[in-house]
Amino acid sequence: MDFHAPGFCKNEQLSALPPAELSQLRPLLTRVSWINGQGLHEAGEHIEQVFFVEQGAAAMMADTESGSSGTEVGLVGREGLVDLPVLLSPAAASFHRAVVQMPGDALRMPAPALRGSLDALPVLRGLLMAHDRSDGDNLALTQEFLSTMLAVRRSGVSVAMQALQAAGVVGQARGRVTICDRPGLEAAACGCYGRVQAFIAAAAARNPCLVDCAA
Hints:
By secondary structure, the chain is of the alpha+beta class. The chain has 8 helices and 9 strands.
């Protein structure tokens, strides 16, 4: 899968992501083909996987009291994903039955992986902020503290830290995090962190009082 090839990703949600964030999701995505009438999940079913539609469409069907095949209440194409409730809770169940209405392709991702990837970005930025305010690369931080400080699930912090350690970006010991690759950490956090820091630095250069007053 070449995520940087022109036109590779046709889903509008994924293609709108910065390249660094899209690259993080790359190992988690599997392209699948849909056939007309294929069931994706039933109403009330625990959501195990989500689909980023690239071509075709999935209909959201609500069952009726008469017991008929149901009424279409929504249609998801390449502008979205099936199924959104997983973003609200890891225990989320689907609101409606999802059925392929137009055949095509989608990128499938395990639901826990999607939630974990959403937790990763606050962790990355939290580590960068802590590093900016430290005299060295060794930070006295626990995963529990990061979870509380960033309002991120503890399991999400753990998954993010394991991935960063495996990539050689950080090291971990009990109650301590070591920043091993600052540029790599910034790249994983996308360019927004660097842009914010550059803005602050430029503002401070124009008015040094801003730094004195903030200290």
